[in-house]
Structures are given as C-alpha cells and as structure tokens.
Amino acid sequence: MKKILRRIKTFCAGGGVGSRQEALRLTPKVVAIGLFFLVCSPAFALEGKASWYSSKDACKYNPTKGCPTASGKSIYVLEKEKIMFAASWSYPLGTKVRVTNRENSRSIVVEIWDRGPAKRLARVIDLGKEAFSKIAPLKSGVINVSAETLSSL
4-35 pLDDT, tens per residue? Predict the structure, then answer.
C-alpha cells in the first residue's frame, strides 16, 4: 500500500507527466488503482478574510464535550491537544494549508478538520484560536490572508 501511495504522490507531483509545471496544467487528474480513486489536484491559493473560533464560542451549551467537527473530533479535544486546525469549504478535510497574514507576512500551517465559515460571512477560512493568535492578535477578529495547499494525501 505504501508503494502505491508513493507512486500516486509522484504522479500527482508531476512525475507521471514530465514536470511539475506540466502537471499543474493538467488539473484535476484522476488516478484509478483497483477500486480506489484518488483525485490529484495541485496546490492552489485563495485570498480573502479569515476569522477565528474556539470551543468556548462555538459550543455555548457544552464546550468541553460537544461540538464535533466535520471530521468527527471535538473542537475541545483539538484545542487540548494543541492541534493547529481550521475550517474551510474550499479544501478537503485533512488538507494541510499554509495561511499567511497579508499585513505582517506571518504564516502558520494548519490542517482542515472542519467545515465553515458560515457562507454568508464571505470568509475564506476559519482558524482555531491558537492558530489565529500565532499570526495576529485575537482582538483584531478578522484579517486579510492568503491560504495555499501544502498536501492532501
């Protein structure tokens, strides 16, 4: 299985088409192996607004037990384990994303564990409280960011 995943990663990175630049032009590529289908899509960046959320704010009734994320793990548990997490509609769950504050150029790598932010807010990504505090003061609330994928396999 590891050998198959390594071959898929090589193919997605451009090893099966010649170069990384050529692979970027062929998006999305679909690789089928037996009954497993994986979609290889190269890194893409989004720019827009980002905000933060925490178990205390998202789970008003039971912040220590409730509020599971879209991936199943509780927001409280993610915070307790000091995992840098985020919510986005644009990236698949499990994708690692580099989020950069466009005002001060600080960046953080987060993993997409949840879906959000609310579409009516017109934001690109919601960061966990700890991740947001690494790139901007919490009291700023909403910041301008760019977000680019690092990996999804």
Answer: 556 555 555 444 444 344 434 444 444 443 32
The proportion of the chain whose per-residue pLDDT surpasses 70, expressed as a percent, equals 63
CB 139 within 8 A of CB 51: no
DSSP collapsed to 3 states, the chain: CHHHHHHHHHHHCCCCCCCHHHHHHCCCEEEEECCEEEEECCCCEEEEEEEEECHHHHCCCCCCCCCECCCCCEHHHHHHCCCCEEECCCCCCCCEEEEEECCCCCEEEEEEEECCCCHHHCCCEEEEHHHHHHHCCHHHCCEEEEEEEEECC
Answer yes or no: are the C-beta atoms of 153 and 12 closer than 8 Å: yes
Scored b (16 or more CB within 10 A) or e, 68-80 reads ebeeeebbbebbe
Residue type present at position 98 = R
Task: Write down the pTM of the prediction.
Answer: 0.68
**In whole angstroms, what is the distance from residue 11 CA to residue 17 CA?**
7
Do 33 and 40 touch, CB atoms closer than 8 A?
Answer: no
